[in-house]
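Re: export button greyed out
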Amino acid sequence: MSERLSVRKTYKLYIGGAFPRSESGRSYVVTGAKGEFLANASKASRKDVRDAVSAARKAFPGWSSATAYNRGQILYRIAEMLEGRRAQFVSEVAEADGVSGKKAGELVDAAVDRLVWYAGWSDKISSLRGSANPVAGPYFNLSTPEPTGVVGIVAPPMGPLFGLVSVIAPVIVTGNTCVVIASERAPLPSITLAEVLATSDLPGGVVNILTGSSAEMAPWLAGHMDVNGLDLTGADAELAQKCEELAAENLKRVLRPNGKTDWAADPGTGRMTAFLETKTVWHPIGI
Amino acid sequence: MIFEYAPAPESREVVDIRPSYGLFINGEFVDGSGTPFKTVNPASEETLAEVATATEADVDRAVQAARKAFGVWSALPGSERAKYLFRIARIIQERARELAVLESLDNGKPIKESRDVDLPLVAAHFFYYAGWADKLQYAGYGTTPLGVAGQVIPWNFPLLMLAWKIAPALACGNTVVLKPAETTPLTALLFAEICQQADLPPGVVNIVTGAGDTGAAVVGHPDVDKVAFTGSTEVGRLIARAVAGTTKKVTLELGGKAANIVFDDAAIDQAVEGIVTGIFFNQGHVCCAGSRLLVQESVAEELLSSLKRRLSTLRLGDPLDKNTDIGAINSAAQLAKIRELSEAGEAEGASRWSPACALPEKGFWFPPTVFTGVSQSHRIAREEIFGPVLSVLTFRTPAEAVEKANNTPYGLSAGVWTEKASRMLWMANRLRAGVVWSNTFNKFDPTSPFGGYKESGYGREGGRHGLEAYLKEIS
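Workaround output, generated via the alternate export path:
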């Protein structure tokens, strides 16, 4: 009996809850840390970027008006699904980064724990960032944070799973939707993460993941007039400056790259607050 | 019945305007290197004073002075910085009448507004942030100041915008280089004297006057750590582009095209007052002005006739007259812009109406104006006019009101008039705007964060939130 031939996975994009190939028909070769062939990943185009932004915009009203409790539970559900696929992620991270199985296991565990951490923030960030303001007059005056809208994310090239989860979770937990440009070097875990997202009760379109060339796609995202925020964590200095200039056209909120991020450190609230607006409502007091 | 009013002018004797002003750098008035410019009273076109223009080299001197002062100022205990700010707040209160008259002279706004709105808010803002200076560790944004703040402010609320910029910056331990608008530099220069009276250490506050080039030099200076700007969205974009790739922290408070939404169950008389306050306060030179009236179709006719009746009682004229409701347009350029957009409104098919209203012969004036039959695609429904011009649109359902209100690239403010609390909160949740006034409009307070969504800019001024713009993020 001959050895069984394995059934390989086709890695596609994740847009609006579906897994399409790039409309351009393009793909690129993804290799492991030792240069071995891993897969042909989709190489997303400008049209794919625009489709992803449309999907994210469409998902925004529903996701941003879901209760914080509901969003928290869904993020926790993502952690559960990720944990359930631990073995698969360990092997993908090990292949992508050339790290030992033990190290890859630690990274997958950290990604799960980070999701759990952010899940708990969904119904607490408003208490921290909001305020009742003692104005000098007969008014009830309340400030509350609200999500910015559609956020474009250039995911970090290193940390194809832990880094990726660390940039997506803080953006969506508060009610934003996003379009993510995955690590160009190691995109495969991002598509496997999309399979997790697709089975976690996360509405389609809340997270859209594109693989391909960051340098090609990021400027389209940065210049898109229906994108409200831009996380440039994964962009190099040159690309980041170009994207920030493009983002000025509709005054996107920009989170600049901050040197080398230590993903293992306490992330703080900065990645959430970068994409929150403050709304202040004045209401007269009277009978 | 027609009421006759005798003139009731506020005396301009309380303020002593010098024939010429220099730049305020390192605690002293110094000459500017550029060609001086004149600032005029927009109500009479009379020249008030000649003001220095700061060149790039002058701005550099100001930034160096601020950098040097930063070491001293940021090292002071917060409680000492607080006392300087309290002192400034008190001097502003003591000299409030003088400042109010000067503001009305240079800006054209009615004295009753500069005296009863601008100045009380200016003093309150300094008083409020003074109290934060020694309590930063409780605010949640860290306690480390950024350094030198470059601040560029507009002409519509000259001294109030100065307060919004300088008070939080100083409270957090930063030093500032501030550029007032070229048409309204005088109260900022009087504020410089107040800094001297308060014995504020030299270089903590520097005031550089000039036009756009001076502003660009402030924003672009490599040793400026923080840029704060209030003004047009167009200039906001240029600034956002100019700071790309730097580590400068930026807050932008830009334009607006706010919807003021009136439901059929609203208290109509109160709503009419709110509409008037919303768009005719400060001649409509207000970024958060309620320039689009969205009225529910069933009450549109009743509301508009009340509104027109009310507008016929507004008094336009001498800004220094205590009975004046509507003052002068700030500049010839702004008047031209208001005229151009109003003409576009007519050309695009909207109906224009103004009350019978005699305009003074000299100066820059525009009568309160209402456009009806406006559709969402009209320029007067989309572009910020920044003048006393109201565009009226109608809606049938709450969902349609939300859709129309949010159909703008701006998102600074909105108003909702309804007696039903649950509907009000439903609306407030869905409006994409930084400030929502429910059954009121154009209310401001130093404790209340102010700032926009979308292309109205980013960052908040006022309240605990206002500290974030002037402190290093905790990483």
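The CA atoms of residues 84 and 290 of chain B lie 37 Å apart. The button fix ships in the next patch.
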